[in-house]
Amino acid sequence: MGGAGGRPRRGAHVVGLTGAPGSGKSTLARALARVARARGRTVGVIAVDPSSPFSGGAILGDRIRMNDLALDPGVFIRSMATRGALGGLCRAAADAVDLMDAAGFGLVLVETVGVGQDEVDVMRLTHSVVVVSVPGLGDDIQALKAGVLEIADVHVVNKADREGADRTLAELRAMLTLVPAAADAWMPPVLGASAAREEGIEAVADALDGHLAHLKTSGELERRRRTMVTARVLRIVQDLVAETLLGPGALDADRAQLERVLRRELTPHACARALLGRAAERGRSRDVRP
Amino acid sequence: MTPDPIRVLVAKVGLDGHDRGAKVVARCLRDAGMDVVYTGLHRTPEEVVAAAIQEDVDVLGVSLLSGAHLTLIPKIVELMREAGAGDMLLIVGGVIPDEDVPALRALGAADVLLQDSPPETIVHRVRELVAARQPR
Prior knowledge:
The complex is a heterodimer. Chain A is α/β, with parallel strands linked by helices. Chain A has 8 helices and 8 strands. Chain A folds into 2 domains: 13-220, Rossmann fold, CATH 3.40.50; 230-285, no CATH class. Chain A has a 7-stranded parallel β-sheet, sandwiched between helices. The radius of gyration of chain A is 21 Å and the shape is globular. Chain A starts with 12 loop residues before the first strand and ends in a 5-residue tail after the last helix. Chain B is α/β, with parallel strands linked by helices. Chain B is 42% helix and 19% strand. In chain B, helix 1 links the parallel strand 1 and strand 2. Chain A binds chain B through residues 51-52, 54-61, 63-64, 67, 70-71, 76-79, 81, 83, 243, and chain B through 1-2, 5, 26-27, 29-40, 43, 46-47, 50-51, 54-56. Strand 3 of chain A pairs parallel with strand 2 (35-38) of chain B, so a sheet runs across the interface.
């Protein structure tokens, strides 16, 4: 699907929700959707769950946390499977965001799969990223590491009614103050919440509104849009190249080379370069399919 | 490119509180390479049909062990018709007396798979019915 391209942008605030499996992303999506509805905004939700690396199938279970939204005509929820994409989303997520934007939703929530430390595609698709943490999963060294925690525009410590929440809040706040920020830079707020009890959700919604306002006044929104478009086009190019040059059967002619790698006569790097060279020759002889 | 996986919504409606069977079916369909949306227990026909439409599924699978199938399935069929989801296949499963199966088929269920259906049969029927359906 690529037809959403030439459509006018309608101005949805696209918000990413990411965090570990079971941290409460779906429940937070429901709670945020309810706050947005109470504030008169319509809400689109894109919820991504993983595809099996073995069968390719998927159980899409995020909806279960949002069942009571299904009958509200101002909310539209669509579940998607990763289908082999590795960055926490699926390839069609960007197109789905475009469609929800074009359909006029005021808020679009994009919920990633449960992530570990390094699945950061959501920052290239959304205006604001909420990273959901929970008490008891790590210490201040975990909070110091690069990756998912770095991409937060708003930190939410969910299940904040549980033991250890104060410590998690403190560690995240301490991490953010280790390096001095520019005076006009956005300082990600660190907020405690209980999505299941719907406590602290208004503050998260306010923080997201504040972040969008900051993006607009600072000119960062325009910069992010540029980065997002570039990343998206490059990703499509990557997929097209892979699909065109390495489609079904592409490796058949190279079995002998792969056997040589197995026998340690050829390095994986040399084999891959040779394989790509031959694929490119084949591509030149029959034009890359648009 | 490989064709898109078949999308199925597995739903439990009404007061029936047993979903081990529905979960087994969801898992089998997943292992057969399908995208399976599961709604959880105690949904209403309205919620289930709204979810099936938002998820644009090929198949709506409703599991019933409660004996309320002749009350709930007609309601689901009516809501699907109202929503213009006539191209979506409805498959009913669970504990259903044999003598009620013709009535469910007459209502518009594409198939009724009873509790003794082996997983391979369920996967096979879903594939067969989706393949036979008019292209959308």
